[in-house]
Amino acid sequence: MKLLPLLLFLLLTGCLGDRVPWDIADVKQSDGAVCIYVPNIGKNFVYERVKIQKSGEKEEFTSDFKEKTQAKNTCLPAVNYKFISENEYNVSFSVLDMNSGERKVYAANFTD
């Protein structure tokens, strides 16, 4: 009987992952290229992982960055994903502080 209140509490609180704070990334487009970046971030942050989803589709493209690319003033590295003109995209990515281990998550929505 003591287990029932605990089970109800867990069901009502939801998943902890749903409460990840997202910050907004900047997007600039030039000559058909998309640059997604974080303008105000510390110099020790590197890109960690990216998720790209074309609006209206269930399938997602995900990729982990094997090379440690500095995130400060740098476009999200190319991941062999082809953005198609006149489509809306949702992009989310994480960056990791190599010194402290702090992780931040960013999101952007744009039409190419």
Automatic annotation (TrEMBL):
Residues 25-111 form the DUF7480 domain. InterPro entries: DUF7480 (IPR055903), T6SS_periplasmic_put (IPR054657). It comes from the Bacteria. It holds the Pfam family DUF7480. This is DUF7480 domain-containing protein. It comes from Rahnella contaminans. The lineage of its organism: Bacteria, Pseudomonadati, Pseudomonadota, Gammaproteobacteria, Enterobacterales.
